[in-house]
Design brief:
The protein is about 35% helix and about 25% strand. The longest helix is centred in the middle third of the chain and has 23 residues.
Length: about 500
C-alpha cells in the first residue's frame, strides 16, 4: 500500500511531466474534444462482430475518458479508458501513431483524460479494442488514483472525496444512477395520477409542517429572520385551499439535528397532497407507487436488504400503533391505559425518558425503541395519538386518535401520512398546545402559524397528504445500510486537506 511519502513523490513526478508538456508548447488542459462514440455505444454496435468482420469493415471510432489502467511494452501500450458508460480498451503502437505522438503518450498517467481515435479490432484474447491512430491529452491529473488492489475503502475518505469514490468504485455510481431513475419514475407515476409538480419556499418565516429543530438565517434587505424549511407541508396545503386538487414536490428539507446512518441534516423528501381523499386512499396509492417503481427499477417485487429478501407484493400488513406495541413487546394492554404503569414499564425496559412525558408520548417512545426494528415486511402502522400528530385529522369515533399512518420496511420509517386537519378551530387549539410545549423547553414543537389558520378559515376540502423520504427509499431499493451511501455529498465535520 502506498505511503504518504510515495504519493507525494508521484505528485512531484506528475508536476515535472506537466512542466515538460508546457515547455513543448502542449496545453495539458484542452478546451474540448468531440468523441463520436461512448464505450457503451462501441460495445452495443460492434461487440457482436468477429475479429475477421472488424478487420474487413475497418470501423473508425473515437472516444474520450479517463485512463484507469495502463500497460506499456516499450514500443506499444494497452490502456483502458473509462467514460460515464463504462470502459474501452485501446492499443497505442509507436509505428502507427508516430514517434512524437508516442512520446506524448508516454507522458500520460493513470488518471489523465485523453481522446483517442482509430480502428476497432479484437486482440488474441478476443477483447474488443481500439487501435489508436491519433491520441490527444485532454487533462493532466496531478494526484494518483488509489491502487488497484487496495482501492478506496475507507468510508470517511469515500464520503469526503465522493468524486474519487465514483471513479474507482463503479458500484457507487450505479447507486446514484438508480436514485435518479427512482425519482424519475416517482414523478412519472404522480403525473399519470393527475398530480401537478410545484415548488414552495425553502426559506420560511415560520418553520412548520413537522416537529423538528430548524436552521436559522437572516435576510438583510427585509430585516427579518428566516428558517430553512423543515417541511413544505403548510405551503402545499395552502395550494389545496387555492384550488389545486393534487400537488407534489420533491426537494430538500433541513433539520438541525444529529447525524446517523438514517439521518442527514439536509435530505430529500417527496410530499404530495390529494383533495377529497383520506389516509386509506393514500395507503392504496403508496402500495401502487412502490410496486410500480420496483417493477421498473428492479424488474420485480423483491428487495434485498441486509442479506434478507423483502417481498413488496400487496397487500401489505397493517397494525394500529398500540396493537404493534402489544404484539412485539408482549406488554399487558392494561399498562398502556395507565401513564404511571407505562412509565414504570418503559424504565424497566430501558426506554430513555425524562419522566414528565404524557401517556401518548411514552407509548410512542416504546414503539420507536422496541417495535420499529421488528417491522421488516412492509407494514402500515396506523392511528397515532392526537397529541403527537398536530396536523392530522381526529378519528370520528375516537378524538384522541388521528387518521395517520407511517410505513415501515426493514425496520425503517419510509413514509408518514394522514388525513389532513381542515378544521381551523381545532388546528388553532393544536398549535396553542404545541406553543405550550415550546414554552416548556421543547425546541422541536410546532410554532403558531396565523396565516395558515387564516387559509383554513377560507375553507379547505377533505384532503390526505403524505411525505416519503427519498434517501431512505433509495437505501431500500439499492440495499444500502447508511443514508450517507445514497447522498452524493453527505454532511461531515471539516477536514484538513
Amino acid at each position: 500500500m502506498r505511503t504518504m511519502e510515495d504519493i507525494n513523490d508521484l505528485v512531484l513526478q506528475r508536476i515535472r511531466k506537466l512542466k515538460e508538456l508546457r515547455s513543448l508548447g502542449i496545453n495539458p488542459y484542452s478546451s474540448t474534444y468531440r468523441a463520436s462514440n461512448s464505450s457503451q455505444d462501441i460495445a452495443e454496435k460492434y461487440g457482436h462482430l468477429t475479429a475477421e468482420e472488424l478487420k474487413t469493415m475497418r470501423y473508425n471510432c473515437s472516444i474520450a475518458g479517463r485512463v484507469v489502467a495502463l500497460r506499456s511494452f516499450g514500443k506499444a501500450a494497452f490502456s483502458h479508458i473509462q467514460d460515464q458508460a463504462g470502459r474501452t480498451q485501446i492499443y497505442v503502437k509507436k509505428e502507427v501513431v508516430g514517434e512524437d505522438a508516442y512520446s506524448l503518450f508516454k507522458k500520460i498517467d493513470v488518471g489523465d483524460f485523453i481522446g483517442a481515435e482509430g480502428m476497432l479490432f479484437r486482440t488474441k484474447t478476443g477483447e474488443l479494442t481500439l487501435e489508436v491512430g491519433r491520441v490527444s491529452l485532454l487533462s493532466k491529473s496531478l494526484r494518483p488514483l488509489p491502487e488497484k488492489w487496495h482501492g478506496l475503502t475507507d468510508k470517511e475518505t469515500r464520503y469526503r472525496q465522493r468524486y474519487l469514490d465514483l471513479v474507482v468504485n463503479p458500484e457507487v455510481k450505479n447507486v446514484f444512477v438508480t436514485r435518479s431513475r427512482i425519482i424519475r419514475h416517482i414523478k412519472e407515476f404522480l403525473d399519470n395520477h393527475g398530480f401537478l409538480e410545484v415548488e414552495t419556499p425553502m426559506m420560511q418565516p415560520i418553520p412548520g409542517g413537522a416537529t423538528a429543530r430548524p436552521f436559522k438565517t437572516h435576510h438583510n434587505a427585509l430585516g427579518i429572520d428566516l428558517y430553512l424549511r423543515i417541511a413544505p407541508e403548510l405551503y402545499l396545503k395552502r395550494l389545496i385551499v387555492g384550488g389545486f386538487e393534487r400537488v407534489y414536490e420533491i426537494n430538500r428539507n433541513f433539520r438541525n439535528e444529529g447525524i446517523s446512518v438514517r439521518h442527514n441534516p439536509e435530505f430529500t423528501m417527496l410530499e404530495f397532497y390529494m383533495a377529497y381523499a383520506n389516509y386509506n386512499d393514500l395507503m392504496d396509492l403508496t402500495e401502487k407507487m412502490f410496486t410500480t417503481i420496483a417493477g421498473k427499477v428492479l424488474g420485480g417485487m423483491k428487495l434485498s436488504v441486509n442479506n434478507e429478501e423483502i417481498d413488496l407484493t400487496p397487500p401489505w400488513g397493517k397494525l394500529t400503533l398500540k396493537d404493534s406495541v402489544i404484539k412485539y413487546t408482549g406488554i399487558d394492554p392494561g399498562i398502556l391505559e395507565d401513564r404511571a404503569l407505562a412509565l414504570e414499564w418503559a424504565r424497566k425496559e430501558e426506554v430513555p425518558l425524562k419522566g414528565d412525558e404524557s401517556l401518548a408520548r411514552i407509548t410512542l417512545e416504546i414503539f420507536e425503541k422496541k417495535v420499529e426494528e421488528h417491522l421488516i415486511k412492509p407494514t402500515f402502522i396506523i392511528d397515532y395519538p392526537t397529541e403527537v400528530s398536530p396536523l392530522a385529522r381526529r378519528k370520528d369515533d375516537n378524538p384522541d386518535i388521528t387518521e395517520r399512518f407511517e410505513l415501515y420496511i426493514c425496520g425503517l420509517e419510509v413514509a408518514n401520512a394522514f388525513s389532513e386537519l381542515i378544521d381551523p378551530e381545532d388546528q388553532r387549539e393544536r398549535f396553542l398546545s404545541q406553543e405550550s410545549e415550546r414554552a416548556g423547553g421543547d425546541e422541536e414543537a410546532h410554532q403558531m402559524d396565523e396565516d395558515f389558520i387564516r387559509a383554513l378559515e377560507y375553507g379547505m376540502p377533505p384532503t390526505a397528504g403524505e411525505g416519503i423520504g427519498i434517501d431512505r427509499l433509495v437505501m431500500l431499493f439499492t440495499g444500502q445500510n447508511s443514508i450517507r451511501d445514497v447522498i452524493l455529498f453527505p454532511h461531515m465535520r471539516p477536514d484538513a486537506c
